[in-house]
Amino acid sequence: MGLMALGDPPADYASIAAVGLFVALMCVCIIVGHLLEENRWMNESITALFIGLGTGAVILFASSGKHSRVLQFSEDLFFIYLLPPIIFNAGFQVKKKQFFRNFITITLFGAVGTLISFTVISLGALGLVSRLNIGALELGDYLALGAIFSATDSVCTLQVLSQDETPFLYSLVFGEGVVNDATSVVLFNAIQNFDLGNISGAKLLNFIGSFLYLFGTSTILGVASGLLSAYIIKKLYFGRHSTDREVSIMMLMAYLSYMLAELLDLSGILTVFFCGIVMSHYTWHNVTESSRVTTKHAFATLSFIAETFLFLYVGMDALDIEKWKIVSQTYSPVKSVALSSTILALVLVSRAAFVFPLSFLSNLTKKTPNGKISFRQQVIVWWAGLMRGAVSIALAYNKFTRSGHTQQPSNAIMITSTITVVLFSTIVFGLLTKPLIRLLIPPRHLSREASALSEPSSPKSFFEQLATNSPGLPDIENGISLRRPTSLRLLLASPARSVHYYWRKFDDGFMRPVFGGRGFVPFHPGSPTESSVPLLAGNGN
C-alpha cells in the first residue's frame, strides 16, 4: 500500500494521457503545416482536421471500436478557453483603416446577413427536413438549426484569405465572421429562452430591440476595457520595472473583458474583438519596445495554438462511435446523407441569399468605383463564408445533448449531420478557396490592391518598416508627416472619408493625450524607451 501511495492516483492517468496526446499531436500539426506551407490546396486548419481524424481512427481501432474520444467535447472548454484568444488576436492584428472604412458593409453582412440566412435555413428546414420524418423535432429545433448553421467559421476563413494579398476582401469576410459568430450565438440563446407558443409582432420587436442592445453594450464594454488598460499602463508606466507585468496585464485585461461580458449575458465575442482593436490603437503604443514585440507575437501564438487545438479536437470528436451507432441503428444511411446534403444545400443558398443582395445595396451607397464590391469579389465573399466550424458544433452540442449524452435518435442524427456538414464544408470548401481566389483575382491584381492600401498604422507593417530602416527611426515619422497634406486633401475632397478626418482630429486632440497612442510616448528617465525618445522628439521641429 505504501508503494501505491507514492505513485499518482490512477484516476488522473486518463487526463494526463489525453493532454499528452494533444500536445504531441499539436507539435505534429505544426511541423506538417510548415512542410505544407507552399501547397496550393492545404492550409493549417485542414491539416489539423485530417490529423485529428486520423488519430481518432487509430484510437478507434486500438480500443476495438469502443470509443474514439480522449476528451469529451465540452462547450465550456470551447467558449471559455479556446475562442477568446482567437478572436482577440484577430481584433488586435486587423488593419483598422480597412475595417472601419467598410464598417457599415461589415455590420450589414454580419448582423442583417446572419438574420437573413437564419430565416432561410429555418424555413428550409421546416419545409425539407420535416419531410424526412426524422422524429420528435419541434419548431424550436428548426429555429435552432437555423441559428447553428448561420454561424460561419471565422477561424478557417482567416487562414484561407491573406491580409496582405487581398486586404479589402479579408477585412470584409473576417469582420463579417466575427459579427456573425456573435450574432448567431446571441440568436441561439434568444431562441432557447423564447416562448414559441405565442409569437406576436410586439414580441418580435422586443427581440430585435434586445438584439441591438446586446450589440451596442458589448461593443461599448470592449472599447471601455481597452481604454482602461491603455490608461492604466500609461499612468502607472509598468515598463519602468518589468516588461512581464505589462504583457500580462494586457492579456489579463483582454480576457477579463470577455469574462465580464459573459457574466453580464452580453456577447463576449464582440467585446473581446473590439477590446483587441482598441488595445492595438492605444495600449500597444504605451508599452516599451520589447513589450510591443512580445505582445504581438504572444497573442498570435496563443491564437495559433487555440486554433490548432480546436481543429484537432473537432477531428477527433467526429469519430465518436456512440452517436454513429445510434444513428445507424435507427435510420437508413440514405436518410443521414439526405439530411446532411439538405443542410449543406440550405447553407449554400442562404449564404447567397444575403451576400449578393447586400453587396448590391452597399454598392449603391458607394460613389467611387474602388469602394464597390465587384462581382468576382462577391463570389469569393460568398464562398469563403461557407465554412462551418466549431461554433456550429458547440451550439449543436448545446442544443441536442443533455449532459453530453445523446440517447434520442433524432438528437443523435442532428449531431452527426452537423459534424458531417462541418467536416465536409471545412475540407472541401477550404481546399477549393485558394485556387478559386487565384482563378478570380489573378496575382497581378493582388499586388496592385495591396500597394494602394498599405498603411503604417497596424503593428505588423510598422515593424516591417522598423526592420527595413532601423537606423533611421525618424524616417518613419517623417514619412508619415510628408504624406499628411495629401491625405488631408483627399479627406476633404470626399465627404465619406471626412468622418475619418474628424475622428483623427478628435483622436489627436483628446484621446491620444489621455490614453496614449502613436507619437505620445511617455518619457521617463532611465526607462527602456529613453534611447528612442530623443529621436522621436528630434524630428518634430
TrEMBL record:
Residues 27-437 form the Cation/H+ exchanger transmembrane domain. One of its GO terms (molecular function) is potassium:proton antiporter activity. Pfam families: Na_H_Exchanger. The keyword Membrane applies. InterPro entries: Cation/H_exchanger_CPA1, Cation/H_exchanger_TM, NaH_exchanger. It catalyses: Na(+)(in) + H(+)(out) = Na(+)(out) + H(+)(in); K(+)(in) + H(+)(out) = K(+)(out) + H(+)(in). It is found in: Membrane. Its main location: membrane. It is a multi-pass membrane protein. GO terms for cellular component: plasma membrane. GO terms for biological process: potassium ion transmembrane transport; regulation of intracellular pH; sodium ion import across plasma membrane. The chain crosses the membrane at residues 13-36, 48-65, 77-94, 106-130, 142-161, 211-233, 254-279, 299-316, 337-360, 380-400, 412-432. Keywords: Antiport, Ion transport, Membrane, Potassium, Potassium transport, Sodium, Sodium transport, Transmembrane, Transmembrane helix, Transport. Belongs to the monovalent cation:proton antiporter 1 (CPA1) transporter (TC 2.A.36) family. PANTHER family: SODIUM/HYDROGEN EXCHANGER (PTHR10110), SODIUM_HYDROGEN EXCHANGER (PTHR10110:SF154). This is Sodium/hydrogen exchanger. It comes from Sorghum bicolor.
